[in-house]
Amino acid sequence: MKRLNDCRLYVITGENYHPGRTMLDVMEQALIGGADIVQLRAKDTPKREVLAQAYALRELTQRYEVPFIVNDHLDIALAVGADGVHLGQDDLPLAEARRILGPDKIIGISTHGIKQALEAERGGADYIGVGPVYPTGTKPGRTAVTTDYVREAAERVKLPFVAIGGITLDNVNAVLDAGAAWICAVSAIVGSEDVAGACRSFLHHIRLKQIDSMISSSRKVCVNGREERTTARTVLELVEQLNLRDKRIVVELNGEIVPIESWVSAPLTEGAVVELVHFVGGG
Q: Which residue from 237, 217, 219 is spatially nearest to 228, judged by alpha carbons?
């Protein structure tokens, strides 16, 4: 099962966006396209029908080994063995939900401002929703938080967060540029004629942003006479990236030996010259 920190594309059901196609077929296409977490959201559906949908989606997501989240209904989540629930600001309080669900279930909380986000973080949420970033039919009347809140969440919130609300292939880059690493789309995916293709397109944008971020955060160093690019910020991080942490090595940084106890704080700057020398003890 995928960890939340590794998730990149969150897809929510929205039957009103795909008349003539079943929810299960549409969500399977989303999973084929790479969706790595699925939420059942059925605000106006009779509860017995929501339960049947939840059982079907639980079986489907287990086959694809992705987390399955139920919106609002803790009882349904427990009944079908869902991985967790997603709650809004007016739903059951986080502490009560945790007491009912226990420590191992995922609890996500919708937030519309940094105060709510930090409260959810302190309260023990596993992730938060940040939105609606843009006006959206799934939250009629809710004022868009814009990418300003996405940027603030990226700077101040340590929890995984998913940007949601009105996100399309036309504006997703602006959301990613603001600091989102995890995107949720409803109508732009489940309302697409090519659901799997829409998912792949979103993931393409997300991966390109990840590559750009890695390049921008990397630095050029010389390791044993060879020029390398690395995201390591310290000698210790470089040693670990090179899988040498458990080897007996001497590290020389810019002509000076770095004691092993100083690796964690010895900074790697652009143009640093590093020599890594293996040695074998003996008598």
A: 219
Tell me whether residue 220 is annotated as binding. Answer: no
Question: 71: annotated binding-site residue?
Answer: yes
Class of CATH domain 219-278: alpha beta
Find out whether 25 is annotated in a ligand binding site.
no
Q: Is 231 annotated as a binding residue?
A: no
Catalytic residue (choose from 8, 58, 105, 110): 110
41 is catalytic: yes
Of 21, 41, 142, 219, the catalytic one is: 41
Residue 214 burial class via C-beta count within 10 angstroms: exposed 0-12, middle 13-18, buried 19 and up? exposed
* Residue 70 bridge partners (DSSP): 40, 85
**pLDDT for 29-81, tens place per residue?**
999 999 999 999 998 899 999 999 999 999 999 999 999 999 999 999 999 99
110 labelled catalytic: yes
The one-letter amino acid code at 229 reads R
CA–CA separation, 194 vs 202, rounded Å? 12
User: The domain 4-216: what is its CATH number?
Assistant: 3.20.20.70
> The pTM is what?
0.80
Is 279 within 8 Å of 248 (Cβ atoms)? yes
Q: Report the candidate in 135, 79, 77, 85 with the shortest Cα–Cα distance to residue 110.
A: 85
